[in-house]
Amino acid sequence: MIKKQIYIYDSTLRDGAQTKGVDFSVSDKIAIAKMLDDLGIDYIEGGWPGANNTDTEFFKNSPRLKNSKLVSFGMTYKNSSVLKKNFNEIKKRFKSRNLCIVGKTWDFQVNKALNITEKENLNIIKKNIQVAKNYFDEVLFDAEHFFDGFKSKKQYALECIKCANASGARWVVLCDTNGGTLPYEIEEIVKETSLYIPTNNLGIHCHNDTDNAVANTIAAVRSGVRQVQGTFNGLGERCGNTNLTSIIPTLILKMHLKTSISKKKLRDLTKVSKFINERLLRQNNPSMPYVGESAFAHKGGLHASGVKKHSKTYEHIEPEIVGNKRSIIISDQSGKSSLSIKLKELGFNVNKNKLDYLIMKLKKKEFEGYSYDGAEASFELFVMNELAKIPEYFKLKSFQVINEFKDIKDNIKINNTAKANIVVKVKKEYISNSIGNGPVNALDNALRSVLIKSYPILKKMNLVDYKVRILTPDEGTKAITRVIIESTDENKNNWSTVGVSSNVINASYIALKDSIIYKLIKAKTKSALR
Ligand SMILES: [Zn+2]
Question: How many whole angstroms from 187 Cα to the centroid of ligand 1?
Fold first, then answer.
């Protein structure tokens, strides 16, 4: 039997724009549309041209797509001449060839929100789709609140979508607009709906308000729908939409269904997910299935040793299939196997005694408050320090940091400038004074102004993130703090280092020092210390 294809409809640029804190620029939309097209998504809903400037500009400058059909979104109009004028504008001015019209199917919405009769609503659906057919290659009908409508007045909800189908809509998309429907309800309702509308014309659009958007989509596919809508990284208003980064690999790898996304392209999934986050200045969610950084991370010793023998033991798929990778996390919960895997990755082969010794040392460090979970570079330095020899690049003699806060006649003037002076030996002893935007920045500037003379490569290194965590909160301001610094260089390599102390500036210095030494080692720099 030939497997029927499931069509993927991306709404990241339209429903995804409703996400709190997300604000697409025109160039974001263009870049993301190109990325989705390259992946092989069937439909890209670009937005609502004419409704806001970004969407209008995007459609006017829409990129040429190789694989995807670009769809514009719009609502139904009551007045025939208005809808003709609007459709004409969408087609001519915004050069859109496909249109998705959203309409009501829930009697409650028809009576209360539109304030029209149910018959009038049916006529609006019919008229809009019939007219749109004259302007566009493909017309889709988004049946808003379909599942609520079905539960409230089944015959009427069905009548609305039968009307859309009969009027020529290529797709009737069943929307769980409020996101409150559960998978078993979706499965039953879609099955019953498919008695009236061919499944070849049915799509599903779910929201994640009960954390079931993906499950609901799977249920609808099992009942026959052929088009699946969603957004990348589950963007969308409230709790988001069906997450395409989860549903796409699930359809392909678990349900063995055909989509336009080839197995080869599926390897780009993690990259696309990260790219979209990057464009929108959003953090990657490490726990995201398939594409998250922790999706194939193993921390417990038993898991790590199992994965080492056979990846199937604790991984449901090979991470590379979706472009992700396995990682072994080093912590006091991880046993010898995780550590020996990690050491091999770093190029060390150690015997059992050495391994026991390292675990003992590691536990001691963790007891002091070190955690190498998010500071791989410091872990590497720790191992090198124990098993090899790290060149000594400089000797810090002392540093002082002065921070200033002035209160002039209750007119508080906050001065962010801090001063640092440092005594450090490289070829000879240097004294350096620097100012900075805060004490850590001043210290960083002072240290680097000396080191750059002997190690010019450090000019190309920058700090990109600085995080402080309180480890013993009940001790208030006396608490132990852990500082994590993330750095980057000219090759866009990123690395993280950690420092721990009861003094936040000293903890920062430890992390900063590790970061600099790591860069020098990786660049195979010779020590200039005499
Ligand atoms: Zn929606």
Answer: 19
Kindly give the distance from the C-alpha atom of residue 45 to the centroid of ligand 1, in angstroms, as a whole number: 12
The single residue listed with the structure tokens 């402080």 is: 468
| pLDDT single digits (tens) 152-188 | 999 999 999 999 999 999 999 999 999 999 999 999 9
Distance from the CA of 256 to the center of ligand 1, in angstroms? Answer: 26
Tell me how far apart the alpha carbons of residues 162 and 168 are, in angstroms, rounded to a whole number.
10
What's CA 100's distance to the chain center, in Å? 27
SS3 of 245-264: the string is HHHHHHHHHHCCCECCCCHH
Q: What percent of the chain has pLDDT over 90?
A: 71
b/e map 34-48, b = 16+ CB within 10 Å: bbbbebbbbbbbbbb
Question: 239: CA distance to ligand 1 center in Å?
Answer: 11
Q: Average of pLDDT values for 382-409? A: 88
Distance 103 CA to ligand 1 centre (A): 12
Question: In the 8-state DSSP scheme, what is residue 241?
Answer: B
Q: How far, in Å, is the centroid of ligand 1 from the Cα of 195?
A: 25
Strands 171-176 and 138-144: what pairing? parallel
DSSP string spanning 489-528? -TT--EEEEEEEESSHHHHHHHHHHHHHHHHHHHTTPPP-
Quote the ligand 1 centre to 179 CA distance (angstroms): 9
Predicted structure pTM score: 0.74
Rounded to an integer, the average pLDDT of 287-297 is 94
Helix-helix angle 53-60:26-39, to 10 degrees: 50
- Residues near ligand 1 ion, CB 5 Å cutoff: 15
235: Cβ contacts below 8 Å, ≥ 6 apart: 12, 15, 16, 19, 22, 241, 276
Judge contact between 421 and 446, C-beta under 8 A.
yes
Ligand 1 midpoint to CA 206 (Å): 7
